[in-house]
């Protein structure tokens, strides 16, 4: 919030964002915020996040410099289509409608990934796989 900008570097826990959620019948569908469009505010935010001024300029100088030309205040909202589908289908879990579900070991049942690839694919992408030997229980 504009009235919290002076606390950005000294009282972070009491700073508020211009953020919002979209909720349907008690279920969060997504969220968004009003973006920073003032270069001095963006620089202060990077300092609050632990960036030095030099590091911020090296990594995000294009953004900070663009704001100097007068970017208008703007915002955005991203919603979870999978959550909306869950509600529309009357499903109890997002897992019932998610297009590419992940299971406990982070595998994906429909495509069976992650999986092994052959050496030709690795060569095409200039990738190498280094195998690590597992420590034995006897050691």
Would you kindly provide a written description of the structure presented here, covering whatever features stand out?
Helices cover 29% and strands 14% of the residues. It has 139 residues and is α+β, with helices and mostly antiparallel strands. Strands 1-2-3 form a 3-stranded antiparallel beta sheet. Strand 1 (19-24) and strand 2 form a beta hairpin. Helix 1 runs antiparallel to helix 2. The chain starts with 18 loop residues before the first strand and ends in a 15-residue tail after the last helix. The model has no long low-confidence stretch (mean pLDDT 85).
Short description:
The chain is an alpha+beta fold and 139 residues long.
Helix/strand layout:
Elements (H helix, E strand, L loop, with lengths): L18 E6 L2 E8 L4 H10 L4 H15 L7 E5 L1 H9 L29 H6 L15
Antiparallel strand pairs: 1-2, 2-3
Helix pairs in contact: 1-2
Write out key terms for the chains shown.
single chain, 139 residues, alpha+beta, 4 helices, 29% helix
């Amino acid at each position: 919030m504009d009235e919290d900008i002076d606390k950005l570097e000294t009282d972070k826990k009491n700073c508020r964002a211009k953020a919002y959620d979209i909720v349907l019948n008690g279920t969060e569908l997504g969220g968004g915020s009003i973006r920073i469009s003032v270069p001095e505010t963006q620089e202060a935010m990077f300092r609050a996040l632990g960036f030095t001024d030099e590091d911020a300029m090296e990594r995000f100088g294009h953004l900070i410099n663009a704001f100097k030309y007068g970017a208008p205040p703007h915002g955005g909202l991203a919603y979870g289509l999978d959550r909306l589908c869950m509600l529309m289908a009357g499903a109890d879990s997002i897992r019932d409608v998610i297009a590419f579900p992940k299971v406990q070991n982070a595998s994906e049942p429909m495509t069976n990934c992650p999986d092994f690839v052959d050496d030709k694919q690795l060569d095409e992408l200039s990738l190498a796989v280094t195998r690590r030997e597992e420590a034995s229980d006897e050691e």
